[in-house]
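User: Here's a structure from my thesis project, written as structure tokens. My advisor, Dr. K., wants to see whether a designed sequence matches the one we expressed. Can you design one independently, without my sequence as a hint?
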């Protein structure tokens, strides 16, 4: 390992920002480009009926305030990124479920799902036992579509807005993204 690289990892560890894998950074950069405001507006708002909502589980809405609360509870950055991936990919599937193949947003959501699938390859090496119990429990709730779960009506664009905001919070510093 090069001395400069080791020093950078030490600095990140001291700051509490566990380094993201290069593959994660590249894929989330591509995802950030796909989630550009104009694209979200066009595909998730303009191509849907006015006030259209998707029914999602309460736990499938991950906002920056949730991340801040979990950070204050000393949940690791790796665990938070793991949670973000599961919540965001599940939200993307919820949006995809309501679209017919001929819908103008179909191709856009397909491209986003492919990026999430590629990111899933990066996260496949993580096990729920490797992350904090609170995060593992949330991931289990997200993937259980039981009748006992609370439902919430959310606009498709709002789901992707939250996805992007949280992604920038979690990956901006470790991946050295420029804030735009």
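Assistant: Designed independently from the structure alone:
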């Amino acid at each position: 390992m090069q001395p400069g690289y080791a020093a950078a990892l030490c600095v990140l560890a001291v700051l509490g920002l566990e380094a993201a894998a290069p593959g994660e950074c590249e894929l989330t950069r591509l995802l950030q480009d796909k989630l550009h405001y104009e694209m979200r507006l066009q595909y998730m708002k303009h191509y849907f009926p006015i006030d259209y909502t998707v029914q999602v589980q309460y736990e499938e809405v991950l906002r920056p305030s949730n991340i801040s609360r979990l950070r204050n509870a000393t949940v690791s950055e790796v665990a938070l990124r793991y949670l973000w991936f599961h919540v965001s990919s599940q939200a993307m599937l919820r949006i995809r479920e309501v679209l017919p193949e001929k819908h103008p947003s179909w191709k856009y959501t397909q491209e986003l799902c492919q990026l999430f699938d590629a990111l899933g390859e990066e996260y496949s090496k993580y096990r729920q036992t490797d992350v904090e119990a609170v995060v593992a429990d949330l991931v289990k709730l997200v993937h259980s579509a039981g009748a006992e779960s609370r439902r919430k009506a959310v606009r498709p664009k709002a789901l992707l807005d939250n996805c992007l905001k949280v992604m920038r919070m979690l990956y901006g510093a470790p991946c050295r993204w420029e804030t735009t």
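When you compare it with your expressed construct, this may help: Residues 1-17 have pLDDT under 50 and may be disordered.
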